[in-house]
Amino acid sequence: MNPRFITYSVGKLLEILALVLFIPAGIAFYNLLPEGYPAMLLDHRLSGFIIAILSSFFCGMILKLAGDREISGNGIREGFAIVAFGWIVLTLFGAIPFIVYFLGKAAAVDVHVFLRAFTDSYFEIMSGFTTTGATIFEDVESLPRGLLFWRSLTHWLGGMGIVTLALAILPAFGIASYQMFRGEVPGPTAERLRPRLAQTAIILWGVYALLTLVEAILLRLGGMSVFDALCHAFGTMATGGFSTRNASIGAYNSSFIDWVVIVFMFFAGMNFIIHYRVFFGRKLDLLKSNREFHFYAGVLVVAVLLAVIALGTQGIVSPEEAGASFRPEPLSASALTEKISVEKEKVSSFYGILRHAAFQVVSITTTTGYATADSDIWPNFVRFMLVVLMFFGGCAGSTGGGIKMIRVMVFLKTALREIKTIIQPRIIAPIKIARKAVDDKQVMNILGFIALFMGCFVVLSAAMSFIIPDFTTAVVSVVATMCNIGPGLSGVGATENYAWIPLSGKWVLTLCMLLGRLEIYTVIIALSPISWRK
User: Of 385, 301, 307, 299, nearest to 352 (Cα)?
Assistant: First the structure.
């Protein structure tokens, strides 16, 4: 491992962050113009961005001067370390605007207030960069626009990848470039579209930006403001889920907006290489031959049908059942009755059932986390199915989290092969995807990943069960953050938030978000003592 090269590379990433922060800082500056100089510069809604920009830029310069741009060896360990430490450090500096905002609002600042502000800010920005969408804000609509835009922008940056952006706009990082690309791009493999990684990164970001722009235009036509349309397009294409409204997409109560978001969530859960080759290469046959895409679409169709049937036959749960579900602040009898009435009205017709079932299934499966209804008071079968879908996630090469569809396919095919070999011991049955055999080493990599993922899930769920009194909330909070979804069930359900969770629990869930977004291997390799030995 070459620590000085890692230091130099993280410094370059910090300089990029400083430039990006000018965008939300500009929005904050514009909104504070009526207050005049110099008061606006000292306002905690703007000063946090100024501090973040200056500290990111100067710390980036220092790290570059202390580091070394040259590297020897194959760069494998360095590449993974740059990705892991890059995300940790960028989250730290990206959290500064929120830290200053919280401290500026506090009546008095002491150690406890600072620790809470630091923890909540780091949690929120890690949730943004990892496209998790788990928020600590109870009233999102009270936030100033600069901070609202920044949290949505972190989604968009993290969706395609901060390091991938660096590879697109900066000179090559040398021989560590591919490992950086591999460590950040979701999925078991990182496919190139061009011989040079910088070209591949530019293409991916180009497709990503184009789809985001098209969705923003459609949302604007659907009645959203330009600001809200951009923020929700960022959250959709990044499969993030941060909204500018407390009721998420449901606040707009628009059938047009719901279907636009559903379509683009579906696009975001696909491999972006398919988008490029279909839209620009006109290779429509790719949609016919790509087995992962077929599996992805099939899972969504079946899940929507099952949800429609369950909602159509069972409907919303009774007030007694809804009231028994754990909530950090239990609803009063009148509030609960009103909530049940509103949710029943949403699924009172076949079209209403289809619209809301499709939205929630696609949102959860693609790990976006937007909501138009409180699925936590839907039939238990649907709640269970949604939790299972959290593990599935999107396709490899998408912005979605979870285990990924291709890994689930290989896992199921491997299990079926083992059953066949027990019945017919002499049979030779390689794992095939689209009639092509998957290399045994790749199969073992996938099985190892699933084993590590489930192992981490068990250990972290056990840790959360010590911190959170409700077992369902403790377990589902780990699923929702490790799979980068955000909303879950009970205390972290579709209409709840993570503000009430103790500080220790927030740090556990922050680790879950990082492990989920960087897909475990990257973090383990970066932090393993073996990687740092010469």
Answer: 307
**Residue 461: CA count within 13 A, CB half-sphere:** 15
Rounded to 5 degrees, what are φ and ψ at 433? -125, 120
Q: Tell whether the model's pLDDT for residue 445 goes beyond 50.
A: yes
3-state class (DSSP) for residue 433: strand
CA-based nearest residue to 398, from 82, 223, 248, 187 = 187
> Which has the closest alpha carbon to 464: 451, 454, 477?
477
Extract the tokens encoding 212.
């985001």
Written as six digits, the tokens of 467 are 């911190």
Cα–Cα distance list, 300 to 129, 306, 389, 404, 450 (Å): 26, 10, 9, 13, 21
Separation of alpha carbons 99 and 120, rounded Å: 8
Residue 432 belongs to what H/E stretch?
strand 432-433
Q: What is the pLDDT of residues 449-468, one digit of tens each?
A: 899 999 999 999 999 999 99
**Cβ contacts of residue 184 below 8 Å, gap of 6+?**
83, 161, 162, 163, 164, 518, 522
- DSSP H helices in 74-110: 76-94, 96-105
CA angle 250, 326, 468 (to 5 degrees): 110
H or E element, residue 437: strand 436-437
* Three-class SS state of 36: coil
Tell me phi and psi for residue 135, to 5 degrees.
-115, 150
Task: Give the DSSP letter string of 130-199.
Answer: TT------S-GGGS-HHHHHHHHHHHHHHHH-HHHHHHHHS---GGGHHHHHHHHSSSS----SSSSHHH
Sorted by sequence, the CB contacts under 8 Å of residue 230 that are 6+ apart come out as: 149, 152, 216
The model's confidence at residue 294, banded by pLDDT at 50, 70 and 90, is very high
